[in-house]
Design a protein that fits this description.
3-stranded antiparallel sheet; Factor Xa Inhibitor; alpha+beta; 65 residues; 37% helix
Length: 65
């Protein structure tokens, strides 16, 4: 049986941790940063974890995760 194809768009956005959670980079750190507070920017730098329902959808797009 051939290998399953990964959805490349999902692979570029999400990564799976060792415990099986799905990590993603938070939006809002590309431009117009001067009006955002330092605290807000600091929290946006940290990776986010998808909710269980969203993890199920994301993992369907990443067959080998």
């Amino acid at each position: 049986m051939p290998k399953m194809k990964t959805r490349r768009a999902a692979a570029k956005r999400y990564s799976v941790t060792g415990s099986g959670k799905v990590k993603y980079k938070k939006q809002g750190m590309r431009h117009i940063l001067s009006k955002k507070s330092t605290k807000r920017k600091r929290h946006l730098r940290q990776a986010g974890i998808l909710s269980p329902a969203e993890q199920k959808r994301a993992k369907r797009l990443l067959p080998y995760s």
